[in-house]
């Protein structure tokens, strides 16, 4: 019950972030490591300093020679001496690489060595009944209770570090399209990596409570933790090997030496831990399999859905054939069509114009993307470009948000800022047409553009939006004084008009935009789903139609942050057969 109480408290304070409790974490861990070193030195002096001979590797051979198979079984327990170190490396956003190197070399490693050497010295003089709790029995009686208190605090801090590292791993997996979208709360305005995920937090609490209440002894939890620890170590070795080959381009002899030494050592420990899989380690293996299945299904389904949307987006030739009225009635107003595609006319738009009796006189395809900065300035929020000839009144807009931006902003303020940015695009186009020679700078449609300012990965994530955040370079160039406007201009006029005609054309288009704005703005939300074709394999039907559909239904949708009145909202669904 004491452990359950501590766990509930631990996960309840997780939402306050690391920065709020950081003042207590540092001193507590420093006192803990110093206590380990001090107790170790005390035991070395009092009992037996000859244990320092353990640094001689010959004793490894002698130990295995004396104990054979039992020595191999003991390797799993030896591994637990190093557990907890991976928590620091799981997310380097909290610490610099240099700070971790200095802390581990000059504080953590010496204190741990002194602590374990002190326990070994105590055991040499107290062999009877001391092997179960050698650390606490080796503590001098005068400081037992303070050390017990700081030990529990250190354990809570280490557990909290592991929880925070789990949040970071989930977020990184979600960004890579390998995990369903979840609500992420950033607890720091300065550090992007300090986050809190409520669903994962409470899921971990339930999992820990079940584990603590179901495990009959601490040895079973230790065996389970050993499996997890070795999994982290082996995966780190494999990834570092890939970096050495592809990034650092080191000599193959050096790479092979690294792999043989470290991976061989880790596999030896892993073989020892697997022997105790029936004593609690199976829990970790089952959990790992479940997580892998969830990540694989989500990645497979998301990639298949995105590739299908890209393949079935409306071709520009078809848009030209149906004409500027889009084969339907153009009603006054502005339609903001939200979609995940950052380029091209989404197939869901064709579903809109065939399903609805009319479409708005102006349509803007809005794609929301999140960039790794705290706040995006308002005058850099939107990135516009034309999608079709001017008479179609179709535009592409990429709305960029930082991780601390208020996304549930007032919809009227959002619309006003969006229209102002669009008007700047129109004026910028008019200025460029006046400066260009006849036909020299005529651009093709968005579909045929040779220079793309948006890099989209197969999972739909945008890693480079071309037009950078310019807040820090505001005075460096006059070309960036306007709000994130595309310099990529699509002009379909056969020849450059005269200055007066250009001014009249500019005023007409600006007037058209204002009138459409006054007629009202409607948010068109397209939900694209996928289902396996009837002739698909049974496994594919099971994965797509049931597992992926369940994850997609219960994950956080991309439009969850919109604050739009229901009277201004139209949702249309579309199912792709894959």
Automatic annotation (TrEMBL):
InterPro entries, per the entry: K+_transporter, K_trans_C, K_trans_N
Alphabetized UniProt keyword annotations: Ion transport, Membrane, Potassium, Potassium transport, Transmembrane, Transmembrane helix, Transport
Start and end residues of each K+ potassium transporter integral membrane domain: 1-318
Alphabetical list of Pfam families matching this protein: K_trans (PF02705), K_trans_C (PF22776)
Membrane topology, record value: Multi-pass membrane protein
Segments crossing the lipid bilayer: 21-45, 71-90, 102-123, 135-158, 195-218, 224-247, 254-275, 281-298
GO CC annotations on file: plant-type vacuole; plasma membrane; vacuolar membrane
All copies of domain K+ potassium transporter C-terminal, residue ranges: 332-576
Subcellular location: Cell membrane; Membrane
Gene Ontology MF annotations: potassium ion transmembrane transporter activity
Domain of life the protein comes from: Eukaryota
Main function: Potassium transporter.
Family of the protein in this entry: Belongs to the HAK/KUP transporter (TC 2.A.72.3) family.
Name of the protein in question: Potassium transporter
């Amino acid at each position: 019950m004491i452990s359950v109480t501590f766990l509930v408290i631990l996960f309840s304070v997780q939402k306050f972030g690391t920065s709020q409790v950081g003042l207590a974490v540092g001193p507590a861990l420093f006192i803990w490591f110093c206590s380990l070193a001090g107790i170790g030195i005390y035991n070395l002096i009092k009992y037996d300093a000859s244990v320092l001979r353990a640094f001689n590797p010959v004793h490894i051979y002698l130990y295995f020679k004396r104990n054979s198979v039992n020595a191999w079984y003991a390797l799993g327990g030896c591994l637990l001496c190093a557990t907890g170190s991976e928590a620091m490396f799981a997310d380097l956003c909290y610490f610099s690489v240099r700070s971790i190197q200095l802390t581990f070399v000059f504080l953590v490693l010496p204190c741990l060595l002194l602590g374990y050497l002190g326990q070994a010295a105590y055991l040499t003089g107290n062999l009877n009944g001391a092997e179960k709790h050698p650390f606490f029995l080796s503590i001098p009686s005068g400081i037992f209770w303070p050390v017990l208190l700081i030990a529990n605090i250190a354990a809570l801090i280490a557990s909290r570090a592991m929880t925070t590292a789990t949040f970071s791993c989930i977020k990184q997996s979600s960004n890579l399209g390998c995990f369903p979208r979840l609500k992420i709360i950033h607890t720091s305005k300065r550090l992007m990596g300090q986050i809190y995920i409520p669903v994962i937090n409470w899921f971990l609490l339930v999992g820990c409570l079940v584990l603590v209440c179901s495990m009959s002894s601490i040895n079973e939890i230790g065996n389970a933790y050993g499996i997890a620890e070795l999994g982290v170590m082996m995966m780190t070795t494999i990834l570092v090997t890939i970096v050495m080959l592809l990034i650092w381009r080191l000599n193959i002899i050096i790479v092979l030496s690294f792999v043989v030494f470290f991976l061989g050592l880790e596999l030896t420990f892993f073989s020892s831990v697997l022997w105790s899989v029936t004593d609690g380690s199976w829990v970790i293996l089952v959990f790992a399999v479940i997580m892998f299945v969830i990540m694989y299904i989500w990645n497979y389904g998301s990639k298949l859905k995105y590739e299908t949307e890209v393949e079935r987006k409306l071709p520009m030739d078809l848009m030209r054939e149906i004409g500027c009225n889009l084969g339907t009635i153009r009603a006054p107003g502005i339609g903001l069509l939200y979609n995940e595609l950052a380029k091209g006319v989404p197939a869901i738009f064709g579903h809109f114009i065939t399903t609805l009796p009319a479409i708005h006189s102006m349509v803007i395809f809005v794609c929301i993307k999140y960039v790794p900065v705290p706040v995006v300035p308002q005058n850099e929020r939107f990135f516009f470009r034309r999608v079709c000839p001017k008479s179609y009144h179709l535009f592409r807009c990429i709305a960029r948000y930082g991780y601390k931006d208020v996304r549930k902003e007032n919809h009227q303020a959002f619309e006003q800022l969006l229209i102002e940015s669009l008007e700047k695009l129109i004026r910028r186009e008019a200025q460029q047409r006046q400066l260009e020679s006849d036909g020299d700078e005529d651009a093709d449609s968005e579909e045929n553009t040779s220079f793309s300012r948006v890099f989209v990965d197969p999972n739909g994530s945008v890693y480079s939006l071309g037009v950078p955040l310019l807040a820090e370079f505001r005075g460096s160039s006059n070309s960036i004084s306007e709000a994130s406007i595309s310099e990529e201009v699509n002009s379909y006029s056969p020849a450059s008009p005269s200055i007066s005609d250009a001014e009249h054309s500019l005023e007409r288009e600006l007037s058209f935009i204002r009138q459409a704005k006054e007629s009202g703005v409607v948010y068109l939300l397209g939900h694209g789903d996928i289902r396996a074709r009837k002739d698909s394999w049974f496994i594919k039907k099971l994965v797509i139609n049931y597992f992926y559909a369940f994850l997609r239904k219960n994950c956080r949708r991309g439009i969850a942050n919109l604050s739009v009145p229901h009277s201004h909202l139209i949702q249309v669904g579309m199912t792709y057969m894959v």
